[in-house]
Write a structure and sequence with these properties.
316 residues, mainly alpha
């Protein structure tokens, strides 16, 4: 049990440490909102896209058509879509402020999979773990965005441009990098070492810098006002959704890297992209930001418990 405790701590502590460094940097006034916005765009549009492209492109064609991997994607699609419908029915009846409904739904399903999933998989299973999580990412990111469009479209204000919302999805660097990586695998294109080495180095910047930026953006001053909504959405996102998905995953026989991919796709905190989309439709962007902050902090503890529990039970 002690070894499992230390292993779980080794997975989540680097995340906590890097976010703490970012929070400290902000407190020391080394960065401001403007510089953080620029840095976040750089990480999202360049470094993270490169990281995802490299991981996906290194897969072999067999991994894309492997029955277990395809079943994993179908399971994630089924669970997440079903839970989104459940959230819609619940929040539509219980949340009186219509601007909060799409924010609550997004906040209860949309995971920051690439930022949290790849470090966890690499820490536990090395390159093979990163490969499986990349397959999950390639499947989950389009689903997350399509569901977001369907949810947000019904709540968009009169001035919101649905065309702009759809175009922002099609131009999403992570979706483009997933598509390019899969094309490289299908066509059998190998990245030459001359190019691969700098790409790997650039992709390596993504995770630490993204966590530092995330830590620097944490603000706790306005959380009290929406505490009830934050608690409900975070509970659904970090506990209920992964509980349902992991239970079904175990029944389907998933263990180790595949079960960790399920945990990453469902138990990771709310994706930062959810704030951008809520802002575009004119929803409650303050609640969206607060959900990202709270779930990011809480996930350090919930992911630790999930990993420790699954490791102790012999599923990881």
């Amino acid at each position: 049990m002690t070894s499992n405790l230390l292993l779980s701590l080794n997975v989540v502590f680097p995340i906590f440490f890097m976010m703490s460094v970012g929070y400290l940097i902000r407190k020391l006034n080394m960065v401001d909102d403007h510089s953080l916005t620029i840095m976040n765009n750089l990480v999202f549009r360049v470094f993270m896209a490169i990281l995802l492209f490299v991981n996906v492109s290194k897969m072999d064609i067999g991994a894309l058509v492997d029955i277990q991997n395809l079943t994993l994607i179908l399971l994630l699609y089924g669970v997440i879509t079903s839970m989104v419908l459940f959230y819609f029915l619940i929040y539509r009846k219980t949340v009186s402020d219509i601007n909060k409904v799409p924010v609550m739904i997004q906040g209860s399903y949309r995971a920051n999979l690439i930022l949290f999933g790849i470090p966890m998989a690499t820490a536990l299973y090395g390159e093979n773990g990163a490969g499986i999580i990349s397959i999950a990412i390639a499947g989950a990111i389009p689903l997350f965005n399509v569901l977001a469009i369907l949810i947000l479209e019904g709540y968009a204000n009169k001035n919101a441009s649905k065309k702009k919302l759809v175009m922002s999805i099609l131009k999403n660097p992570l979706i483009i990098s997933c598509f390019l990586g899969i094309m490289f695998v299908v066509l059998g294109i190998k990245i030459p070492n001359l190019l691969l080495k700098p790409l790997v180095s650039m992709g390596g910047v993504a995770t630490p810098l993204a966590f530092i930026i995330l830590g620097a953006t944490l603000k706790f001053s306005s959380l009290i006002k929406n505490l009830k909504f934050i608690f409900v959405a975070s509970f659904m996102k970090l506990i209920i959704l992964p509980l349902v998905a992991i239970t079904l995953g175990i029944k389907f026989g998933f263990v180790n890297e595949h079960l960790l991919a399920i945990l990453g796709a469902t138990g990771s905190p709310i994706a930062i992209a959810s704030f951008i989309m809520v802002k575009e439709i004119g929803g409650d962007e303050n609640l969206a930001a607060e959900l990202i902050v709270s779930s990011s902090v809480l996930s350090i503890f919930t992911l630790f418990v999930w990993i420790f529990s699954l490791k102790t039970l012999g599923f990881l």
